[in-house]
What does this fold into?
Amino acid sequence: MVIATTADLIADKLKAIVEPLPIIVKKVPHNKEQMIDQIKRTKPDVVLLDVALIEEDDEIITEIVMLLNIPLIILSSGTVHHTAKTVNAITNGASDFILYDNLDSPYYQDEVINKILHVAASLTVNGQKKSTIQLEKNREQKPPRTMKRKKKASIGVKLPFDSIVAIGTSTGGPKALQIVLSSLPKTFPAPIVIVQHMPSGFTKSLADRLDNICRIRVKEAVDGEKLKPATAYIAPGNYHMIVNRQYEITTFIGAERGGHRPSVNTLFESVAELEEVNKLAIILTGMGKDGAIGVRKMKEKDKDTIVIVESEETAVIHGMPKAAIQTGCVTEVVRLEHIGERIIHHIMKRGK
It folds into this structure.
């Protein structure tokens, strides 16, 4: 495997981190024309691009990811300026990002190796996984289930919605969230609660960017706020997020679950306890298996819960969707570009 990186200062660190593996780290020039030319000649498995080299409305991401068909990881810091540029990059096609300030941490070094290996394995052709293009052609389509309307129980307060959508995602999630949320109408009648595995600071930049793109409101969740329809709440980085029985957001710093904070399982388990609403759970692209326990809990508590997972053909990393499928609780496996319409079907069109 060959990695191309533009970051001179951390190239040696990367070489040391991946030394036990058959991975070659190659430096490429900072000049963009020379960089693209060398990437074309080298044909690396992954490109690691320093966020400082990305200009506003820069086409270099499109050229590497779409034209050269090479997975891209952004090398970033946690500064406000860099978080905004990084979020912009990963909503425009980059697969993931690495915080170079954390490269001295042994725990984070393991995470870096996992990110590189998983992203390298995600190489696609025209948006489809090479190994699954034929599978998509041969797949037998099954008629989807329809969510049943739930008779509301009383909590003493009239809710302005009768359904809730919960989404969990990780690697590749920002781009996937942009595609899904931007397809929803301004009048979407349910709240959406989201866990995207990201560090503190990045989730605020992501929420702000999505809010500028989507017709619904998108915001970083705030402890104590009540859920509203047509609003998506993204769990703040480094905080777990749950929905309590009063349909309010609660955020807290608890122990990591499976290496994650926020945790998809933690959010989904709290949604499972809500008895007054219909529930729709969605697992998008992501490394690992966060969300599988939560999906099972939601189904155990309410057999009418609809569970949709992103198909392997479009997921950057199929780990989280695959883990959810293995629970036996999944209702539909859907290509990313169709998930928005399935959400609209279940939340807005059922029973009509």
Notes: Residues 163-349 form a domain with the Rossmann fold fold (CATH 3.40.50.180). The first strand starts at residue 2 and ends at 5. The chain has two domains: 2-121, 163-349. Confidence is low (pLDDT under 50) at residues 125-143.
